[in-house]
Amino acid sequence: MKFELDLFRKITDELLKDEKVHPVLPPISPKDISSKIDISLSDEGSADDEFSKILRDLILLTPRTATKSFFNQLFGGRNARATLGDLLAVVLNNAMHTYKVSGPMVAIEKIIVKQFNQLLAYGDKAGGTMASGGSMTNFMAILMARDRAQETIRQMGVRSALTAYTSKESHYSVSKNASFIGIGRDQVRYIESDALGEMIPSALQAAIENDLELGNIPFFVNATAGTTVMGAFDPIDEIANICQLYNIWLHIDGAYCGSVILSNKYKHLVKGAEKSDSFSINAHKMLGTPLTCSFIMVKDKEYLSKSFDNNASYLFQMDEDDYNLGKVSLQCGRRNDGLKLWTLWKSVGHKGLEKIVDHQFDLAAEGRAYVRNHPDYKLYSNENTLSVCFNYKDIAPEEICAALYEHGKLMVGHGSFKGDTFVRLVTINYGNSTEDIHQFFETLEAFVAEHFAISMNPA
């Protein structure tokens, strides 16, 4: 493996150096990829020199999501300690379905789940597991809710009209998952949000009452801790009280901002979370671990077993069931995605994770302040979010975001809320400083002055 490790180090060193000079690469059209890099596969393998060059070119031409100019998605940056854990997980190549093949790595995952459940005040019956992303942990939640609502479903299938509820601003996976579990997309009720982008509890209760009158069975409510566009937090405490009134499973989609449970300053944003039945969190977002690192916590771990345990004597041959993670997992074989969070958490401690979370809110506050203090900007964002939504000089957000990317200046996206469309700057990369936030706006302004002069000053 010496050749491969040396090559890895060589390419990585070159990438890190080049990222400092070119933090954003102009995009390559899909039809042009083959002309830029020889990605073809053939009967004969490539010689080492040729293979090394092609691999180097491939890596150096790939979009850069860890630089200080990447603000496009709800992840970013590169944490060295977490990356170390991910690299070691690759070298070890454990599958996390049985204790026999993963050993202490099972304990690593379980201790993280235990810490999260303690932060949620879920109690002694709590459990949890990992899946391949936020969409999948949300899927596990709605599946457990379905099975609790009708225990015969696992054997006989869906035979009545189950209804689920979520905000209009929630993640698109809710409707997709409704189709996966067999209730159908039409059985999802999209609840109105207020001016801040938060679900309106009275509208939720009215929708539940209406379904009960129609003879439907309300079984699942999805609340969001950090909506995809506005970064809003649904009023969980009020929603939880409604769910308890009607005995409905409450899931909190904390994929984006669920990490606020680590912060004394911001955990109030999920007040009432202890009343929920499940809570998902993506450490590859606010905590900066490499993709993917997604957890789902459950107040009563019995529901994990009821929905996902399927005995297989050829797999589960020894040790306690509690350490055979395949019995509570959506997947069978899965990679060791918990190690990268453990290496980070172990090295910086709870206080270090808290600083990571708080710093991102500080960056967002800095971004909002910049927008407010410059008359050419219009702000759409609210306080206590990581999404800084704005427009600059009334330029179409779609145009400015596309042009910045095409010219290799910045990677930033746009979003829409209640009829308004805007640039959406997310401050998810805790490796950035306030100076980097200012540099973002200065780069944008200089770019507009150079490339949008004609449209801004018509003859």
What are the defining features of this structure?
single chain, alpha/beta, Aspartate Aminotransferase, domain 2, Aspartate Aminotransferase, domain 1, 3 domains, seven-stranded mixed β-sheet, five-stranded mixed β-sheet, disordered C terminus
Description:
With 459 residues, the chain is α/β, with parallel strands linked by helices. The protein has three domains: 63 residues; 259 residues, Type I PLP-dependent aspartate aminotransferase-like (Major domain) (Aspartate Aminotransferase, domain 2); 107 residues, Aspartate Aminotransferase, domain 1, CATH 3.90.1150.10. The chain is 43% helix and 14% strand. The strands form two sheets. It has a seven-stranded mixed β-sheet with strand order 2-8-7-6-5-3-4, with helices on both faces. Strands 1-11-12-10-9 form a five-stranded mixed β-sheet. Helix 11 links the parallel strand 5 and strand 6. Helix 13 crosses helix 15. The longest helix is centred in the C-terminal third of the chain and has 34 residues. The protein starts with a helix and ends with a helix.
